[in-house]
Amino acid sequence: MATAETHYTLPLPSFDQPVKLLIVVAPYYKDITDNMVAGARVIAASCGAEVELIEVPGALEVPTAIAMAERQAKYDGYVALGCVIRGETTHYDTVCNDSSRAISLLGLQGACIGNGILTVENRSQAEVRADPAGQNKGGGAAAAALHLIALSRKWAGQTTGIGFRA
Ligand SMILES: Nc1c(NC[C@H](O)[C@H](O)[C@H](O)CO)[nH]c(=O)[nH]c1=O
Ligand SMILES: CC(=O)[C@@H](O)COP(=O)(O)O
Question: Which amino acid positions bind (2S)-2-hydroxy-3-oxobutyl phosphate, per UniProt (predicted)?
Answer without folding.
Answer: 88-89, 129
